[in-house]
Amino acid sequence: MASIACATFMNVGAGSARHAPAFLLGGSLLFALLHYGVALGFWGLANWLTAIAGVLMASGWAIMFFAGRNID
Questions:
Q1: What's the chain's Rg over C-alpha atoms?
Q2: Cα dihedral sign for 35, 41, 42, 48?
Q3: How far apart (Å, rounded) are the C-alpha atoms in residues 27 and 63?
Q4: Which of 4, 12, 52, 60 has its CA 20 to 30 A from that of 68?
Q5: If pLDDT is split at 50, 70 and 90, which confidence band does 72 have?
Q6: What confidence tens digit (pLDDT) does each residue in 22-34 have?
Q7: Nearest-10 Cα torsion for 6, 10, 13, 19
């Protein structure tokens, strides 16, 4: 859904929003893989990796916010 939102922003003039899906999807994938790994017992909860995943997702939303400022 976030990628669709990015496409909508790009269609109305926010060209720099094209970078946001990589951050949003990459952070979501890392976050999910970490939690699946913990549930399967591969490794303990790696809080620092979870924090990196959160920063990636937040960066995607920040990119969308700053790209949307130029839309009239």
A1: 15
A2: positive
A3: 14
A4: 52
A5: low
A6: 899 999 999 999 8
A7: 80
